[in-house]
Amino acid sequence: MFATGIENSIPTIQNGKVRVDQMEASDFYRRWREDFDCVEDIGIEYLRYGPPLHKCFLGPGRYDWEFADLTLNELRRRRITPIVDLCHFGVPDWMGNFQNPDFSELFAGYAAAFAERFPWVQLYTPVNEMFICAVFSGKYGWWNEQLRTDLGFVTALKHIVKGNVLAMIEILKRRPDAIFIQSESSEYFHADSPAAIGPAELLNARRFLSLDLNYGRRVDSEMYEYLMDNGMTREEYHFFLHNRLKQHCILGNDYYRTNEHRVHADGRTESSGEVFGYSEITRQYHNRYRLPIMHTETNLREGPTGQEAVQWLWKEWANVLRLRNVGIPTVGFTWYSLTDQVDWDTALREKNGNVNPLGLYDLDRNIRNVGKAYKQLIKDWRDVLPASSVCLAVPVKPLDQDCWPPNEEAASAGLRLTQQSMQNPEAA
Questions:
Q1: N or C, which end of the chain is more exposed by having fewer CB within 10 Å?
Q2: How many domains are contained in the chain?
Q3: Which InterPro entries has this protein been placed in (predicted)?
Q4: Alpha helices (H) in 207-277, listed in sequence order
Q5: Is residue 402 part of a domain?
Q6: Is the N-terminal amide bond of 337 cis, ω within 30° of 0?
Q7: What is the pTM for the complete model shown?
Q8: Whole-angstrom distance, CA of residue 109 vs CA of residue 102
Q9: Alpha-carbon separation of residue 172 from 165, 291, 345, 407 (angstroms)
């Protein structure tokens, strides 16, 4: 699945007084038809996209679907398959922030209403980058609740992941063959010195928390104590163990140069740049969860030569091919996003209007060099790779197949078949 995305981050800053809306910053609300033309021009058939949660979700049981209807039905007409991103770093003003214990149930209700409104949608990322959202909101003090505590982080994390799980449950009630593509940041922490080994090990354990909970995997004893010491109850922990839906999931992971960190003895971290790279870190995640992989985000700024992003695209694609060649089932690749982004140079902590040249197209919708390179890459590789879809629990169905929703017995049979093959991935 060659993909790109419409950046739809919506965190709040300045104690909730200012919302950073990336679709507004990129002029998507006005130029979305042009953007879909760009997707088609490159030859991309899968688009990470979701309507703006803060504009659609007006209150409990209250929704405004006008913009979602326009955009999603246009994608369907064009046979561009959406991977629907329902929550991307923020919530509506009336909901407050991720410390709100009602978030999980409220968000699940929104997901249910969305699935009823758009029963033809099969692919979802219910909550984008759950770990990053919880860290930036509850631990770093950058977004939304802007807390700087372990309690704030764990509280945000448990609400976000529970919301993701409940959303999957509600969607599956309405679309039994739904596939959930987690878009989660893949991290690694390198010890700077022998004295930093302990802090680095702690951070390397903590990076897995969102996916461990989401997939119902028991955490190790140190992480269990950390969760219990910072506000999670045994009952809340057991919820995740008893709602194990990983057979419906693809492990989508994101990788940027900033995803690897150098850890100092006092626990301070800084970016280390690329040390291990995507393929090595993804092996660690795959060994832990044993799920099909999709590279769901990467990018690099277009620099002074105009070739920096092109070289990064080539390097990331080589890493994806390496995973496939060593037998790790890999089903997709994404350059994120379609157009340039705004203010990610400050991680959306400030609203300065700085354009970051990260897209396949600039904000005037002129194709960048990396867009031309991605178009050629897709043309060269599209017909070579489809056989890897055998690793999926249920098939991804093209939008021209009017066979939704499937009957539950058939979907379950497909899941049983592939669960057996997933236990022996080399045979699959």
A1: C
A2: 1
A3: GH, Glyco_hydro_1, Glycosyl_Hydrolase_39
A4: 209-214, 221-229, 234-241
A5: no
A6: yes
A7: 0.92
A8: 11
A9: 11, 19, 38, 12
